[in-house]
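From the pipeline queue, job 12 of 40. The input is one protein chain; the requested action is below.

Action: predict structure.
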Amino acid sequence: MTSPFCTIVPPHLLEHLAASENPAVAAAARRTLIADASARTARVLPRPSAAPPGAPAEPAAPRRTVHDARRRTDLPGVKVRDEGEEPTADATVNRAYAGLGATFALFRDAFGRDSMDGAGLPLIATVHYDEKYGNAFWNGEQMVFGDGDDEIFLDFTLPVDVIGHELAHGFTQYTANLEYFSQSGALNESVSDVFGALVKQHALGQTAEQADWLIGEGLFHPSVEGTALRSMKAPGTAYDDDVLGKDPQPAHMDDYVRTSRDNGGVHINSGIPNHAFYLVATELGGHAWERAGLIWYDVMTGGALAPETRFAEFAAATVAAAKARYGDAAEIQAVMKAWAAVGVPTD
């Protein structure tokens, strides 16, 4: 079994941009699509073994390495910053390094997990990938960031939740290994949005009420009519732009999008479980990683999910996890209420 090639910008959005009347936008999008296709087919990785969960015996420390692709596509590129080294003169390198650390810190401090695999997996990143590359991805082994085209997208290291999102694909890879297609693929994407949002909130010390619940805020060029790639608070409202089009994410099963594109709409229908998590977190209040995040973490690491898990099965697993950890308290009620609100049954 191979682990998925997971990008932050969905292919349907790049395909839309590739048809733009702006030649610079269209050329950059086409180049990104070609680079993604090449990177996707270059990888054949076996399914990794999941490491046993649990807090490390001693406080874990990250092992980060950042490379510079120098606008080529050879990975990992030239090593430019290793763990413990001083910041470089390249702000992109430093943001990638800090974002890897912020993601590691969330999983360690909130969940007692030592890196994405639970066993100290080194965190490797490559920046300045290709020319005008408008994406970021996890390829099963490392993170890769483009600089953007400076027409639609800026540097992909700017939003820390993008870094958290992509590294969280590694977390899923080493735990539930959700298949990257249809509802299980949308859950795969949603889990990355959930933990990406938690990385940002943890780094900023924000409560659920203080958070913006946006994924990729700050990624768009100022000329774009949009705030982010996705909104967990209000799916379908993140952007509405003449060039980008309108955010297609649904927030309820009544609006579930059936499509053969984007691996069955994995980046689109993720809006439904995304919104469910937002509702749980805001209903419970406080820091979202402390209760809502723990429930989702327990589901991912508890062994109850099959690779082809669908929304209703995942929802039922969150109810079971809430009951196992908290009993018949406010947490289980918040979880059941949230899934009902997005039209997903829990029994």
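Job complete. The mean pLDDT is 93.
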